[in-house]
Amino acid sequence: MNWRIKPVDDILATAQRHKLQRSLGAMQLIMLGVGGIIGTGIFVLSAEAAQKAGPGMMLSFVIAAIVCGVTALCYAEMASMIPVAGSAYTYCYAVFGEPLAWMVGWALILEYAVTASAVAVGWSGYFVGLLAHLHELVGFVPTIVIPTAWANGPWSGGIANAPAALICLLVTWLLIIGTKESAVVNAVLVAVKLCALTAFIVLSVPAIDSHHFHPFAPNGYVGKMGVGAAAASIFFAYVGFDMLSTAAEETRNPQKNMPIGVIGALVICTVFYLFVAAGTIGTVGAQPVTDSAGNAFVPGSGALAAACQELQRVVCSREPLAFVLRQIHWPRVANLLGLAAGLALPSVLLITIFGQTRIFFAMSRDGLLPPAFQVLHRKHGTPYIVTLATGLVVATSAALYPVGRLADFANTGTLFAFLTVVIGVMVLRRREPQRFRSFRSPCLGLFGPIAIGGSLFLFSQLPTFAELAFAVWTTLGLLLYLAYGRRRSHMAQSQ
Ligand code: ALA
């Protein structure tokens, strides 16, 4: 069997020939990282995590942070060694060869494009709520109600989620007019997001009552409901640090700046999340909604939605952080937080769609996707065809599917990519011990297995539908590779 492993030196040489402009420094990378990480996960999905784990979601955040932290070290080492676009896809090409690289690239569509759709749907929830409350902030603005049919996809009782689709198209346009302008917009939105979370922490943490932390894990620790299951879903909140490595070719001095960017962004987000989770649980309580027998309803189920109609609970809210602030008597700040989320979540969309286009760009450069994906815009210098194609697909799935399902499906692909990168770093340490690494992941012998075990554990805790969908997606990818990439790839043609 010919695995078509692409030597690291060849990858570096190809990148040298098809150059993207190097304009990003360490600080911009951290901003891009935080912009890509903090989003729907903390602003919206924390309600879903609470329904699964209760106060134990605090531990879920810690578990997901540990898995991401040890994986981030591996991403940083890879990016410092192979600073080219393509992330896990490119790394896999160098370590395991073309078939697995393709499969990882295919899984990354879940991590990037499907994540982008989930973020857009989460944003839409806040945006619709914001329009309804806007008159409380600005007196002369009337209440604007978007009809349910056009604020929800067919699986949530509507026709299409129009705001979610429109925001995807707007961000696509921003990306087409240029990375630089987009990075500036991103920096402003990151600042807005951090201010909103800081306000939440400052107001909620002093109001914590430790009684709300009991019982700590009403649904247990392992299984499809419980602390592990919540960790698998809330893992979505940390996704994004790895996307930074897709910007390696556009980074100045990537060997130094890339590890600072990846790890710096992850640490900042983890600190914010833990305080936000503590503030949420400790102020209003986060016990799951249960049936009369005491069994917690599954998040996203019709039964939970029906039960929630009678209840004012954080697990029922589509704007959980704003809900908490209203409950602790800060309604104005709650509306401002809604406004901040409405303004800032698109920065996550920006970085995820950006990452997806750069992965397609790298796959096309290797001949695994059509060459049109590399065509740059004459005026703006951006890969506009692939950006437009990605934007349209992301907008369509955002219009149709609910946020929780999209997020869990996206998590399957992300965990698969994480797994291959960690194993890849361990393999390269043995196979190419002499290759220069400006950043070496510490204690790889310990952290590597923790990252692998952690990813497998989180995958096993995801809902069954997501695991099955991943199996179908992977099979489809394999068939596509056999039909197109295997013959068209540049590696195939040069052999
Ligand atoms: N981590 C990103 C979010 O939570 C994907 O929206």
What does this structure look like?
With 495 residues, the protein is an all-alpha fold. The chain has 19 helices and no strands. The protein has helices at residues 8-17, 26-37, 40-53, 57-81, 87-95, 98-137, 148-151, 162-176, 179-204, 227-234, 254-284, 302-308, 320-327, 331-365, 384-400, 403-431, 444-461, 464-488, 490-494. α5 packs parallel to α16 and α6 packs across α16 (403-431). It is globular, with a radius of gyration of 22 Å. The protein starts with 7 loop residues before the first helix and ends with a helix. 57% of the residues are buried. The mean pLDDT is 88. The structure holds alanine. Alanine binds next to α3 and α6.
Helix proportion range? 55-70%
Which ligands appear in the coordinates? alanine
pLDDT < 50 runs, ≥5 residues: none
Q: What's the total helix number?
A: 19
Spatial separation of the terminal alpha carbons: 14 Å
Number of strands: 0
Key terms:
495 residues; mainly alpha; 0% strand; binds alanine
Topology:
Elements: H1 8-17, H2 26-37, H3 40-53, H4 57-81, H5 87-95, H6 98-137, H7 148-151, H8 162-176, H9 179-204, H10 227-234, H11 254-284, H12 302-308, H13 320-327, H14 331-365, H15 384-400, H16 403-431, H17 444-461, H18 464-488, H19 490-494
Helix pairs in contact: 2-9, 2-11, 2-14, 3-6, 3-10, 4-10, 4-11, 4-16, 4-17, 5-6, 5-16, 6-8, 6-14, 6-15, 6-16, 6-18, 8-14, 8-15, 9-11, 9-14, 10-17, 11-13, 13-14, 14-15, 16-17, 16-18
The structure holds alanine.
